[in-house]
Amino acid sequence: MSEHGWDEMAGLLNTCLSLRIQHHHARVLEPVVKSLTWEEHPDEPLWIDRMGL
What we know:
Layout: H1 3-18, H2 23-40, H3 47-50
């Protein structure tokens, strides 16, 4: 995925969080997003960690 794609994905997640999704849903999605991110960019820090989730 391109750098723009990751920025867009992070922006979408921020939008979801700003809509006050339940904390439970964020915790359920976190390992899924982390695993997808890790497979795509194993040598880079996970953007979800940078977002403070």
